[in-house]
Design goal:
Helices cover 37% and strands 26% of the residues. It is an alpha+beta fold. The strands form seven sheets. It has an eight-stranded mixed β-sheet. Strands 1, 2, 3, 7 and 8 form a five-stranded antiparallel β-sheet that branches. Helix 2 (22-41) crosses helix 3 (69-85). Bound molecules: zinc ion (ZN) (2 copies). Residues 17, 28, 32, 133, 135 line the site of one zinc ion (ZN).
Amino acid sequence: MAESEEDRHLKLAGEFDCLPEPLPTLRHSTSHVMAQAVTQLFPEVRVAIGPAIADGFYYDFLKATPFTPEELERVEARMREIVKADLPFTREEWPRAKAIEYFKARNEPFKVEILEGLDVPTVSVYRQGDFLDLCRGPHVPSTGALRAFKLLSSSGAYWRGDEKNPMLQRIYGTAWLTQEDLDKHLWRLEEARKRDHRKLGRELDLFEFHDIAPGAPFWLPGGMIVVRELEQFAREHLDARGYLEISTPLLVNKRLWEQSGHWAYYHENMFLVEVEGDVFGLKPMNCPESTFVYGRALRSYRDLPLRFSEMGRCHRNERSGTLTGLARVRQFTQDDAHIYCRPDQLQAEITDLLDLVREWYATFGLVPSFKLSTRPPEKLGTEQQWDQMEDALAQALSANGLAYDLNKGDGAFYGPKIDIDVEDALGRQWQLATIQLDLNLPERFACEYIDSDGQPKRPVVVHRVIFGSYERFIGILTEHFAGAFPTWLAPVQARVLPVSEKHGDYGRSVFARLRQARIRAELDDRNEKLGYRIRDAQVRKVPYTLVVGEREAQQGTASLRQRGGAESVVLPVERIVADLLAEAGRRSATLTVGRSA
Ligand SMILES: [Zn+2]
Ligand SMILES: [Zn+2]
């Protein structure tokens, strides 16, 4: 695995500090300019490291007090002066001893510590103007090449990420090749803040976290509707494609994890319980247990493929400091499945699976992209097995007309895989689905089928998730839709608003009709102004608001307003009911009721 840029800065391993590509080089160079500005403005500050990261860069400083927003502004202004001065970045090779002496003389303990940890005769340094940093580059030719950047925030961070070490002050910034790219990124950040699923989850009564159960959400009634609709969506598709649903125990004897091989390297991430002198673990994945269902009967080549799906509730002991809303949890529910098939069936299975993946994401307006990871140097099985498996994956991608990136050598030791990322409404990438082939599991659990020649053979096992987990997927959907779910997912699909108390009876009858048609409806007959109640329905992101007054009561109609719309249209209640049910039934991504006559 490639080391992170942070690691490369600390160990000076490899040829460069940052990837020799335009964006990382630009960002790393910007971090040097930031460190130059900081040391000019705050001479008492000590410098640590400043790598490029996704979308930007940071630099860590030892400073007695956190950077204030005003200080960040001053730093950024000084950076712009340094850019204007167009100072060249120049590289020098120094004996390591000279570098240690230099940084000791400048009282830079972190640089000295990095240098003393090295076992090389020479190191390189980069200089721009009066600033010199221990660095292997590469850099842009001069500071004038930096234009589109912005400092974003500052927060505490321990030296080398270890809480026993001194607390440093980290400044985060972002840098892009053009002002347009920078503006787009800043818009995305602002929009992401507004759409933060933890905030929307509370505001829309979807889910809540409590420190009584870190990393495990309390699903509120609204969120539970989304869970149920997604489960139903998944089940309909899986039933149609011949999956068989199973459910396996949460708490399993550690013997299982020893047999699967997870115990050796994974048990520290498991929650363990002692029962009658035996150690049990809450399952962190569903795979080993699915083999028990496979192995409970003698399987013939005619029985395959077997597709066992499971809404598998898993637990993993993530460190409390890493837990983040629904994105990083300790308890989650995978939309898991394990497919057991003959080698000659593999390609057809993967082809069908990719078709399902495409159909699935299209429903949510998520755009998928595909990565194929092939055999690593250390691996199980024969070259011939790998040829067949990799070929099946590649052919299935082609059969679906899908372009993909090839990650050579990036597969697991037990099989190749396809990873699928999706792009959301903000253009952010999320890894959701994985299709992983596995030679190891059937071997460890001695899974067999009797082939047409009467001989026992090992089936191929495919692990796959499509949502990933319901928890994380709902977090992503909440931000993707900014809480404005399509009608089929919306916790409340329609709200009925009587104009005044006089129209209360008719309002209640419309509400009752919607309920009877199994439309998720609410009645808002609070003693508040109509305008206030209409705005409230918009704030709650309810797809349809039905206002009813004198005329509507006489005609059996309602004045219908779509979420986000200013116009309303008067329609018969029965027409609204029929159209709304049809829209939800076909899982439309857009609101259609009342749009055209
Ligand atoms: Zn550097
Ligand atoms: Zn699995």
